[in-house]
Amino acid sequence: MGACFFRIRNCGADFSFNAKHSPQIEGPMSHNNRNFILSYILLVGLPIAGLVGVLKSGRKLTAPVSVDGLWHLQVDSDRLAALPCGKALAESPDTALAISQSGKNFTLTLPNGPKSTASGALDGTALQASIAPSADWSAQSGCGNGRELSLIATVDTKADPRTLTGRLSINNCPSCDAVEIRAVRQTPPARKAAH
Amino acid sequence: MSLDLFKLVLQLTVILALCRVVGSLFRKFGQPRVVGEMFAGILLGPSLLGWILPGVSAYLFPPASLGFLNALAQIGVVVFMFLVGLGINPKELKNHGHAAVLTSHVSITMPFVLAAFLALYLYPKLSDDSVAFTSFALFMGSAMSVTAFPVLARILIERGLLRSRLGTVAIASAAVDDVTGWCILAYIVVLTRSAHSGTSIWITIGGIVVFALIMIYGVQRLLGGMETSYQKWGGLSENRLALMLLLVFGAALCTEWLGLHLLFGAFMMGAILPKEPKFVQYVLDRFETVTVTLLLPLFFAFTGLRTNIALVKGSEMWMYCGLIVLVATVGKLGGSTLASWLTGMPIREAAGLGTLMNTRGLMELVILDIGLDIKVISPALFSMMVIMALVTTFMATPLLEWFCPDRILRETMPIVPAQDPAVRALSTSADRISA
């Protein structure tokens, strides 16, 4: 069977491209049709069986914790304003974090807050990110050059909606106190499909 | 969110100008215009404009304005999917013998299965626990097994191969691929969306079956009446054309309401339209120009704005990207080549067919946009897949020239005596879409 499969071109099969229409059937099942069915099983059926196996074994895999979405930030605004760089953030009317996740890595924006670039990574349920204020933000809050906000938090995966608890601090500022933060996810991703 | 008309018109002007310029440049290098327009979209996004001129990018494309741009782009894609469906003639798919059936099915299963294997590796790295592995793997499979019907047809026209054995088999196989790919994608979308809506999946599936039956046994007859009217009067009244457009949007709304996606209804409406070549041509003439020259570039731009190549950072991420391109190419090009060669096609011609089937183009972008919308794929994976779509589409023309140089084509490749009606209609359609 296998040998004939690999020699379909010489097996007498005439379901080739020269035949515009399906070959004529001779008897209950012609030689051509038998070869076609055989090669179809090997080239299409077996891979599909493999696909079923892949889908089954893949269910055991675990992916990073989801943090994607919009998070409402709950923070003591007085303490936040006392931090270098924190004033502009504390003055934001409705402080939120928007996280766009790709596996363990994510980018973070402050939709209602000052402009910044931020990225971070997940390690299990631990989240770490650094937020680099834009030049405007730095000038406004007196951050100083090169200062960044650092966010270290833990994701509570059992809470519904998910929550983040952790600390927001300033890099290179030993005298600055870290501010406790809590964030609640506002827009859980609409995607978990049935298995 | 208020409409800033000045900003919207400014966006349209910039997008159209850049798409025309880059498309023309790509044409000079022997690439279909559509590849250049896809590339232009990337240039307008955070990968280039947002990176080198963030101020200009923020002024031109502020996040609040993108909703309107997206709405126009999506309307364009809905009409475009109707035109793609129009190019597919289910009856013609039956006329291509077992070999073409085998080739087309292998060209789906090989990349699909290889993509599922790749998903085992990528899921823990590029996804998260809100996405089920099954959805992730099936989406990767359907995204990798798609073929860009219009781009493929354009390449065949440019090489004078549309009427060749290679051309007719490629067109038939691509049509089978697209129909199958969209069916699989529909299944994934239903799975994903039904998990969050209160409606049972069986009610959704039942609704889709009823919708399909109404389309085939009800709406198709109505459309048949339109063809009769066209034959009688040599054209359709504005009222009838408006009715056709209403039916397209109505079908799109039905599939969206049923938990699928707007595009499935539009595609199905195109597929059930009568396939008499002159009638098809007439409908294409009416709907194509604005769609292809105005609305599709907006879709490319919107996709480009969502594509951030900066997310593919570090050697590890670029290795994932390389793996995606490799698996997509081996599965599609390799699978199609193997199947067609085993069933009697000479090796060069078989490789040419594999190359054509490996062209993903615009269809891939449409599928990826759906994947990002329903969040089955992450932004970084989306960017990698867009790169894969660009690379596989870009490589098609030079690879085809390499595998099947003109001299060999003229000497060895038989010409199919009469063009299929679908192919004939498609040739004009593809000519406009890609030219």
Write structural notes for this entry.
The complex is a heterodimer of chains A (195) and B (435). Chain A is an alpha+beta fold and 195 residues long. Chain A has two domains: 2-58, no CATH class; 69-185, Lipocalin (Beta Barrel). Helices cover 26% and strands 30% of the residues of chain A. Chain A has helices at 2-6, 31-58, 77-82, 86-90, 135-141, and strands spanning 69-75, 96-102, 105-109, 116-123, 126-133, 149-156, 163-170, 179-185. Chain A has an eight-stranded antiparallel barrel with strand order 1-2-3-4-5-6-7-8. The radius of gyration of chain A is 30 Å and the shape is elongated. With 435 residues, chain B is mainly α. Chain B has one domain: Na+/H+ antiporter like fold (Up-down Bundle). Chain B is 80% helix and 0% strand. Chain B is built from 20 helices and no strands. In chain B, helix 1 crosses helix 2, helix 7 (97-126) packs across helix 10 and helix 9 runs antiparallel to helix 10 (165-194). The longest helix of chain B has 33 residues, at 201-233. The chains are: A alpha+beta (195), B mainly alpha (435). At the A-B interface, helix 2 and strand 2 of A face helix 7, helix 8, helix 10, helix 15 and helix 18 of B.
Number of helical segments with 4 or more residues of chain A: 5
Biggest β-sheet description of chain B:
none
Indicate the mean pLDDT of chain B: 85
CATH topology of the largest domain in chain A: Lipocalin
Task: Classify the beta-strand content of chain A into a percent band.
Answer: 25-35%
Structural class of chain A: alpha+beta
The poorly predicted ranges of chain A are 1-27, 190-195
Report the CATH architecture of chain B.
Answer: Up-down Bundle
In CATH, the homologous superfamily of the largest domain in chain A goes by the name Quinohemoprotein amine dehydrogenase alpha subunit, domain 2
Ends distance of chain B:
37 Å
Average of the residue pLDDT scores of chain A: 76
Largest sheet geometry of chain A: 8 strands, antiparallel, barrel
Number of strands of chain A: 8
Fraction of residues in H or I helices of chain B: over 70%
CATH topology of chain B: Na+/H+ antiporter like fold
Q: Give the structural class of chain B.
A: mainly alpha
